[in-house]
């Protein structure tokens, strides 16, 4: 039984889909299938039920997966502790996020201060935001960063960034030159919005509910780049969390007069797992970095 077999099995078990697992692992699907088959031969039991080209983790597989998760997690913690003995300059930070655009400037600033610390960033699709909590629980990632609180046992969270929500309007829009706007002024505007399930969609829906307006949503997207591009193209307006230290030239951001319209971003970690010195340093750095920016 090889370590690589266990890592491959864990990915297949989580996804229950051989092709998607192969894509995530960056290997050929037939090679992955052979690896799983050899592992099952070594164990003497099937780990998956197979029917109509679909696979499902069976009772043997679920029992084995729990032990594999524990073993791989202990090995990862051992690696972190060994690297810590070599000092911060040899450290690595693993972080999962669904808002890489908000995190990237902080990563760049930290790398300037600690150029030898390496990063492993897991960008999570917005629809799979809750998997960040699962990655933290399993010890696969050191830190999580995003606009959602998971409220899971053992998962600690700290709010590091509160961003005001602005209304983004395209160049030439009738409201472009206003210093601020009210919700009444935008009630009939066509909105570009994230798809249901996206963490920003939940925040924006709550903002609209509190304001007592019902948005006319003409397009739903998955990614910030798509939303920004459609606003820039003049298709509609959108709620956007504004980082005042980031310049926006593609469209105009208008402050909304009503208070308490904010997105809150959290840094999260598993307090029952070993956190490397590099991860702890980056955790503290994020808190200070965003506090300075907001001041």
Structure, explained:
The relative contact order is 0.14. The chain is α/β, with parallel strands linked by helices and 295 residues long. The protein has ten helices and eleven strands. The strands form three sheets. Strands 3, 4, 5, 6, 9, 10 and 11 form a seven-stranded mixed β-sheet that branches. The chain has a two-stranded antiparallel ribbon with strand order 1-2. It folds into three domains: 63 residues, Arc Repressor Mutant, subunit A; 121 residues, D-Maltodextrin-Binding Protein, domain 2, CATH 3.40.190; 103 residues, Periplasmic binding protein-like II (D-Maltodextrin-Binding Protein, domain 2). The radius of gyration is 22 Å and the shape is globular. The model has no long low-confidence stretch (mean pLDDT 84). Strand 7, helix 8 and strand 8 form a beta-alpha-beta unit.
């Amino acid at each position: 039984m090889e370590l690589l077999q266990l890592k491959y099995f864990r990915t297949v078990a989580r996804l229950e889909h051989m092709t998607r697992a192969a894509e995530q692992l960056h290997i050929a699907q037939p090679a992955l299938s052979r690896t799983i088959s050899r592992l099952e031969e070594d164990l003497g039991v099937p780990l998956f039920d197979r029917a109509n080209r679909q696979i499902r983790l069976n009772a043997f597989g679920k029992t084995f997966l729990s032990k594999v998760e524990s073993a791989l997690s202990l090995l990862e913690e051992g690696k972190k502790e060994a690297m810590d003995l070599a000092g911060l300059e040899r450290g690595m930070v693993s972080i999962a996020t669904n808002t890489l655009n908000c995190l990237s400037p902080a990563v760049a600033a930290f790398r300037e201060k600690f150029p030898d610390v390496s990063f492993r960033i897991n960008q999570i699709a917005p629809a799979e935001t809750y998997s960040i909590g699962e990655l933290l629980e399993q010890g696969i990632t050191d830190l999580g960063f995003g606009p959602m609180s998971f409220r899971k046992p053992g998962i600690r969270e700290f709010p590091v960034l509160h961003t005001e929500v602005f209304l983004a309007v395209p160049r030439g829009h009738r409201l472009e030159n206003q210093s601020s706007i009210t919700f009444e002024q935008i009630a009939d505007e066509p909105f570009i919005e994230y798809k249901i399930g996206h963490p920003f969609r939940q925040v924006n829906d709550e903002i609209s509910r509190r304001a007592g307006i019902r948005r006319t949503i003409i397009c739903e997207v998955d990614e910030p780049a798509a939303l920004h591009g459609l606003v820039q193209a003049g298709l509609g307006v959108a709620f956007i969390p504004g980082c005042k230290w980031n310049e926006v030239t593609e469209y105009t951001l208008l402050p909304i007069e009503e208070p308490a319209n904010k997105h809150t971003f959290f840094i999260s970690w598993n307090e029952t797992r070993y956190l490397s010195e590099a991860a702890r340093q980056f955790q503290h750095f994020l808190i200070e970095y965003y506090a300075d920016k907001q001041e």
